[in-house]
Amino acid sequence: MKIVEELKAKLENASAEEIKILEQSEDPIYWFLLLAEYPEFAPDNSWWFALCNRCDLPWSQLLTKQPQFEKYCHWESVSRLELMILAYRAPEIFQRMFPQGRAHDLYAFLTSLEKSCLLSQLPEYAEFIDWDEINAKFSIGNWFSLLSFQPQFEIYFDWSKVEKQPNHYWDMLLKKQPQFAIHCDLEQLYPNQHRKLMKHQPEIFER
Q: What is the rounded CA–CA span in Å between residue 133 and residue 61?
């Protein structure tokens, strides 16, 4: 990820004072992604303690690759989505922390957005999914977000809901999955969508 590599480059050439400033100014989510790949840049205990109430941090991604950071985890603040992903990617940690818990029990409490994120990050979970329920509850935004990461799930999506119609999420999908442009009337794109796609996927306008 570009942001992670940029943060790494800053840290490699930074003084101790500059590193402290980066610890305060850079989004902790980017730090987590950095530490998953480069644990040698770990901040001190006080940095971790300051995150004790953050419930949006990608603990599953960090602990799957760097389980030594478990000692800094404030489990009360870990989101149910992250707990589900962790249970499948690092089951030994989940079972040790929640010996009586079953990750699948958390699924019923996920929002549609969280379910979309779950399948985006953990596509193998699809075998447990009731796709009729997903189709009944997912918004187009939920679907396009999922398909942008996992295009194989289009077999469950009814394209007639959006085909050849304007939608605020076309650019999100087509930036990553330009093959789905066959379902989009490009002339109905909003100006800002057209600009974004001309920058990232100009070839779709050449068809």
A: 28
Rounded-to-integer distance, Cα 181 and Cα 164, Å: 10
Rg for the chain, CA atoms, rounded: 20
The model carries a pTM of 0.86
> How confident is the model over 128-142, as pLDDT tens digits?
999 999 999 999 999
pLDDT reported for residue 104: 86
